[in-house]
């Protein structure tokens, strides 16, 4: 290192001396001024330019030489500690550090404490601030190593976590020998943060102790066997030794359905301290209505499409952020806010039943989630479990009623003294397309007093009926303003939607006699004009 530094300094000094010599030579070569001729003047200019260029080049060279980083001595990057590995009479691995005649470390540097591969390990016992656990290892012939946590054999493991511990332990390494005989308390090794005991298939064993982190994030102190020698290891290589048993448990809270037919619940109920009354949702099996789900409790209504799909998608195939507690006690359930859950979902599927409970979320949107089937408490974002934050208001459908036109046989419309009755029929007909190919086409026709109506205008009218948005402002209404009834060509009973005046900018809306929300007054007033335009054959505006 010093030789390189001296070489750079000498080079810089030589550059300075060359520059000074050049300038002195220029000064000594000058003669008594005399009026230069044209050629002499040009020569003088050229010399000056060359001198300037040379000076500039020397300055740049000097800057480059002085700004170059110091190169590390090759021995510093490749130094290997002079240590020897051995096994004592008890079959425990030990390390011996070579010392010089003065008792100092003969050759410091990096090295290994063990030379194994993970499949050589049969058992790993870990004790740290989070508790203690044992990793059991088996490697079937020709197959990958399989790990199990003793006492947790029935729990699904998270991939890769046991491999991290086994890999770090099997080839335990250090970057530096800190002391051949240190005061362990100075390095946090008198009371280690972690103790890792290894057993190998060759009937030998080893012990690794993890102490404090070194200053300046230089690494972490470790000790080997029962020796007082202190080594420095990279922090990430010993980090797996600090894991808790919870780290190994799979983050899969619920399994996904193996068959698509089992993806949809047959019934889902949400309850808990968040809700005044339980909310029950079931799939809509009526082919005449486009809604996917129906709210049956605490009041019957078609469920908001977005909200109900979010709820349906947050039960099966659910993954948590972290395993918090395995086999929790009653006190632990209480401490995590799960003895009286903020929200509980019970969902029945064709192939299984699932129950999950959630605590109230913290300011960061994180909640505790308990699976009684697995007896595990997880940490999860509230946004991932929509059933724990839903409400009756959130489930109010965006539209009052969304029927399918091909399932309707009649529409009766009433506004004040005006009454209209439209007969609707849907059939499949053979028609030729633009290329002359014959294909089946579904055709819907509407008639008023036996007269067929313009198909495009009628479709717009029907879309306007289906497009009545529910603003969700419930309340009793006054006098009836408008109503329409859908009569179906299926077994479904007729549906009647009624608008009532409220003295505000919204009309109360009832479905089959029950007020379920409200709608814009201006929208309903415009809708009232649709039937008269339709029967006259005038364009019907798309509301």
Describe the structure concisely for a colleague.
The chain is of the alpha+beta class and 543 residues long.
Q: Could you explain the architecture of this structure?
A:
With about 550 residues, the protein is an alpha+beta fold. The protein has 4 domains: about 1-65; about 85-250, no CATH class; about 260-395, Immunoglobulin-like (Sandwich), CATH 2.60.40; about 405-535, no CATH class. Helices cover about 20% and strands about 30% of the residues. It contains 11 helices and 29 strands. It has helices at about 1-30, 40-65, 75-80, 160-170, 235-240, 305-310, 330-335, 390-395, 455-465, 520-530, 530-535; strands at about 85, 95, 110, 120-130, 130-140, 145-150, 175, 175-180, 195-200, 205-215, 220-225, 230-235, 265-270, 280-285, 295, 300, 320-325, 345-350, 355-360, 365-370, 375-380, 410-415, 420-430, 440-450, 450, 480-490, 495-500, 505-510, 515-520. The strands form 5 sheets. The chain has a 9-stranded antiparallel beta sheet with strand order 16-15-14-13-18-19-20-21-17, covered by helices on one side. Strands 6-5-4-9-10-11-12-8 form an 8-stranded antiparallel beta sheet. An 8-stranded antiparallel beta sheet has the order 25-24-23-22-26-27-28-29. Strand 10 (about 205-215) and strand 11 (about 220-225) form a beta hairpin. The two termini are about 80 Å apart. Residues about 1-15, about 25-40 and about 70-75 have low confidence and may be disordered.
């Amino acid at each position: 290192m010093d030789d390189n530094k001296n070489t750079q300094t000498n080079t810089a000094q030589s550059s300075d001396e060359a520059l000074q010599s050049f300038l002195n030579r220029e000064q000594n070569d000058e003669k008594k001024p005399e009026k230069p001729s044209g050629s002499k003047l040009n020569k003088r200019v050229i010399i000056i330019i060359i001198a300037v260029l040379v000076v500039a080049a020397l300055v740049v060279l000097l800057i480059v030489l002085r700004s170059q980083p110091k190169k590390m001595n090759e021995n510093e990057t490749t130094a290997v500690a002079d240590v020897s590995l051995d096994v004592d009479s008890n079959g425990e691995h030990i390390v011996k550090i070579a010392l010089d005649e003065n008792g100092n470390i003969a050759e410091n540097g990096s090295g290994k404490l063990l030379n194994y591969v993970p499949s050589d390990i049969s058992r790993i016992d870990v004790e740290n601030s989070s508790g203690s656990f044992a990793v059991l290892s088996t490697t079937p012939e020709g197959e990958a190593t399989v790990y199990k946590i003793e006492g947790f054999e029935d729990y699904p493991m998270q991939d890769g976590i046991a491999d991290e511990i086994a890999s770090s332990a099997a080839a335990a390494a250090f970057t530096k020998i800190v002391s051949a005989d240190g005061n362990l308390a100075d390095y946090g090794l008198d009371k280690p943060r972690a103790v890792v005991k290894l057993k190998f298939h060759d009937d030998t064993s080893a012990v690794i102790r993890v102490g404090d982190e070194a200053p300046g994030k230089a690494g972490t102190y470790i000790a080997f066997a029962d020796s007082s020698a202190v080594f420095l290891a990279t922090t990430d290589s010993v980090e797996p030794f600090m894991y808790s048993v919870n780290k190994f448990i799979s983050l899969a809270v619920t399994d996904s359905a193996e068959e698509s037919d089992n993806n949809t619940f047959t019934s889902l109920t949400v309850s808990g301290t968040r809700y005044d009354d339980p909310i029950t949702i079931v799939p809509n099996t009526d082919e005449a209505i486009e809604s996917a789900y129906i709210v049956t409790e605490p009041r019957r209504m078609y469920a908001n499409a977005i909200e109900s799909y979010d709820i349906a998608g947050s039960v099966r195939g659910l993954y948590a952020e972290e395993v918090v507690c395995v086999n929790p006690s009653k006190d632990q359930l209480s401490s995590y806010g799960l003895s009286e859950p903020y929200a509980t979902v019970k969902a029945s599927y064709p192939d299984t039943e699932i129950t999950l409970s959630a605590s109230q979320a913290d300011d960061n949107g994180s909640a505790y989630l308990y699976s009684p089937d697995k007896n595990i408490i997880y940490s999860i974002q509230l946004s991932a479990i929509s059933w724990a934050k839903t409400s009756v208001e959130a489930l109010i459908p965006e539209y009052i009623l969304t029927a399918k036109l091909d399932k309707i046989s009649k529409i009766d419309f009433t506004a004040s003294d005006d009454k209209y009755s439209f007969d609707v029929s849907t059939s499949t007909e053979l028609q030729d397309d633009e290329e002359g190919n014959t294909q089946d086409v579904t055709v819907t026709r509407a008639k008023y007093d036996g007269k067929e109506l313009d198909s495009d205008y009628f479709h717009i009218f029907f879309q306007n009926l289906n497009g009545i948005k529910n603003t969700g402002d419930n309340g009793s209404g006054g006098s009836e303003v408008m109503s329409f009834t859908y009569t179906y060509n299926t077994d479904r009973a007729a549906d009647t939607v009624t608008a009532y005046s409220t003295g505000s900018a919204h009309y109360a809306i009832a479905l089959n006699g029950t007020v379920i929300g409200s709608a814009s007054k201006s929208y309903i007033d415009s809708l009232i004009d649709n039937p008269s335009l339709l029967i006259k054959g005038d364009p019907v505006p798309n509301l």
